[in-house]
Amino acid sequence: MKGRGKCMLKKYDFDDIDDRYDNFKRSNLGEEIDKLQRIVQRLKIPVLILVDGWESSGKGDIINDLTRELDPRYVKVELFDSRSDVDYLHPSVWRIWQKLPSHEEVVVFDQSFYSQVMNKDERSSDKLKQRTEELLNLEHMLLDDGTIVIKFFLHIKEKTQSKNIEALEDSKFRQFLLSDNDYKQNKNYEEYLEWFDKVLKKTDVPESPWNIINAEDRKLAAKTVLGITLEEITSGIERVTLARERADKSDRKYYIEDTQLDEFDLSKTISDKEYDKELEILQKEAADLVYDCYTKDVAIITAFEGVDAAGKGGAIQRLTRHIDPRSYTIHGIKAPTDLENSYHYLWRFWTKFPKDGDMAIFDRSWYGRVLVERIEGFASESEWERAYDEINHTEKVLTDHGSIVMKFFMYIDEDEQKERFEDRQEEPDKNYKITEDDWRNRSQWDEYIAAYEEMLDRTHTANAPWYIIATNQKKFARIDVLKHFINHIKEHLSELPES
C-alpha cells in the first residue's frame, strides 16, 4: 500500500500519487466512518487516531474533515503541543494517559505522542531508543487491550511548507497557527527530514503502521486519510474481535522454583516497651524524609497489598502519623467504577499517580489485576498474564522519571486470619471490616497464595521492590514498614546528584 513500509520519508516519491479515493466525496467517506463509529461503540472498542506531520502541512484541515461527520458526543480532539509545567511534574507518558479514549470513544491527537521525540533538538541513536521505548510500550499496551491505533504523517516538500507558512502569516489566526517550530523546520528541512525518517522507522508497528500521506494536495490528502481510516477501523474490528475470542485459549506455562511465603518467618515480634520506644522516633524520621522529597521534587508512590485482615490500614495510619497531610493522598482501591472499567485497567492509577514532590499511598493497587481479577475471573487469562510485564514497565517509567516506588506485602498465616475475622464479627466497632467477600476469599486461600507467590516472583525489581512484612504481630509489622520506608527513601536520596 502506498505510504507504508520502511522507506518512509527519505525515498518518498511525491509523483507516485495515491488516488484510490479521489473519486469519493469527503462527506461520503466521513459518513461511512460515522457508521463504523457506532459499531466500535457498540463493541466497546476504543479508537485512537494520531495525526502528525510537518508543521504547516494542514493537520487542522485534515482533522476537521476526519471528525466532521462523527457524533460529537463520542469524539474528542486533543492537541499535543509543548508539554506544560504540570506535564513536566510527571513522567512524559502521564499526559497521554489523561487523554486516551474510553471504550466508546474515538480520540484524535493533533500531533502524535511521538512528536515530543520528533521535535527534540538532541538527536542520537541512543537518545532515540531511550525516548521511544516508553512510548512504544504504551502503544503495545493499548493494542493488546483492544484499542485500534491509526497513525498518519503528513508529508510535504520544503517549498510547499515555505508557501504554507507565508500564507498563514497573512491569516488573522496567525498567532495560533504559526510557531517558532514552523520556521525552524523549514530552515533546517533536510536535517528534520532525516530525523523524522529515523523516528518513523523506529516507531512503525505491524498492528499500527505509519501511513505517510502526500499532503501537497490537501483535498486529496483528506480523502486518503478518510479512506485509510475506514480500512483500518474495519480491519481493527476484525483483529480485536478475534483476539477477544482467543483470550482464554492460553498455553501458559509458569513455574516458580523457589516460593517465598511457605518459608517466610511469621513469628517475628517486638516487645511493647521496644515498640513504644521506637514508634514515634521512626514516624518523625519518616515525616522528615517525606519533606526532603518534597523539597527535591521527588514523588513517592507506596502500594500496600496483602492477605485480608493483615493490617494494611493500621500500618498506613502509623506511617502517616507525623507526615503533613497536605503532602500525601491515600487511595483506597475498590472494585472499578463503570467509568474506570471503560478504560485500560491502568488508567485509573495513572490518574492518581502524584506529581513531583507529593506522595500517594495505595491501599490495594494495580496488582488487583493479577490477584482478585485473576482469581474471580474478572480478567481473562491472557489479560492478567500480560499484566506482569505491563506493571513492571509502568513502575520502570515511574522510577526512570525519578519517582520512588515501594511495595509492601502484608502477610499473616491462615490461623491468624481466622482469629482476626472472628474478632471483627464479635466486636461491634469492627463489624464494618468484615464482609461475606472476606470469608469467600478465605475459602480460596490456596489460589490466592499461588497468585501472591507469582506476583512477588515476577514483579520484584531493583527499582520497585517488594517488602514482605510479617504481620502476625501487628506492632512488629508497623515498625517494620516504617523501617523499610525510611531506608528506601534514604537510599534513593543518597543517589541523587548534589544540587
Number of self-contained structural domains: 2
Strand content: 5-15%
Task: From the 3D structure, determine the CATH topology of the largest domain.
Answer: Rossmann fold
Rg: 26 Å
Number of strands: 10
What's this entry about, in short?
The protein has 499 residues and is of the alpha/beta class. Helix content is 49%, strand content 12%.
Can you give a write-up of this model?
InterPro entries: P-loop_NTPase (IPR027417), PPK2-related (IPR022488). This protein has a five-stranded parallel sheet, with helices on both faces. The mean pLDDT is 93. The chain folds into two domains: 26-245, Rossmann fold, CATH 3.40.50; 272-494, P-loop containing nucleotide triphosphate hydrolases (Rossmann fold). It is an alpha/beta fold and 499 residues long. The protein has helices spanning 26-43, 59-67, 94-98, 115-118, 125-144, 158-169, 174-177, 180-187, 189-202, 218-245, 272-295, 312-319, 338-341, 347-350, 372-376, 381-401, 414-426, 436-442, 445-459, 474-494, and strands spanning 47-53, 75-79, 106-110, 148-155, 210-214, 300-306, 328-332, 359-363, 404-411, 466-470. It is elongated, with a radius of gyration of 26 Å.
